[in-house]
Amino acid sequence: MAGNFNPQTAARALARRLAVQALYRWQLNAAPWQELINEFATDADMPRADGEYFRTLVRQAIEDHEALDAALAPFLARAPAMLDPVEHAVLLVAAVELQHQPQLPFRVVIDEAVGLARRFGATDGHKFVNGVLDRAARAWRVDER
Question: Which numeric CATH code is attached to 2-140?
Answer without folding.
Answer: 1.10.940.10
